[in-house]
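> run fold Prephenate/arogenate dehydrogenase domain-containing protein
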Amino acid sequence: MSSSKSLKIGIVGFGTFGQFLANTMIKQGHTLTATSRTDYSQLCLQMGIHFFRDVTALLEADMDVILLCTSISSLSEVVGSMPLTCLKRPTLFVDVLSVKEHPRNLLLRVLPEELDILCTHPMFGPVSGKNGWQNLTFMYDRVRINDEATCSKFLQIFSSEGCKMVEMSCEEHDRAAAKSQFITHTIGRTLAEMDIEPTPIDTKGFQALVQLKEPVMGCSFDLYSGLFVHNRFARQELENLEHALHKVKEMLVQRMDEGQNSKRTES
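> ok
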């Protein structure tokens, strides 16, 4: 990548997902710095990333982009503690959280007008994206963009890897994610609570359920609870699921009662 297309990106929160994104960004030729509550200085040294123990130093390092890779639950605390006056120029703030209205509202409330906001959600992770990002979905919402050039360069990180780029509002995302991502996690965790395990006579359908459970349980409960607490559409979907299960149970009980009544009539 030529220097005209490279970005200086500061990653706030260098956990598993931040590291996952960083690997591809480095390959593309971008200059990365990072900060995190955990000391990742040795890992960053191996990756060619400058690690700051203090977020103030990262903000003073003159970044084009501040990439927020924190957990859903800690975002408010992390952003609220940032000394934004340390920024040397207008900067693009990007989040990659699995909910979107929450970071959008927070960033609009906290960040001054001159700071740009791009809300995104890569619909993949270290497992699904381990062999590349081709045809994997990347959702984004240009919440507040003054510097189109920097925003376009950042989005190109994903489009150049072959991602399916989907522009939609944060509200649309959360409404859809409550029906898809949240329900998927809920079903997976429910199966885990039932101690669902493979058997010697598994059908393909049951194998699919087991395969659903494993990656879901690989995600933290902090992430799962964030999908519920910070997505205003999730509660209704949980109620819809409970109602659907109750309705199915009623249909089964009704059929059982009909069978018993039929036997009494025959006798």
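The chain has two domains: 3-168, 180-262.
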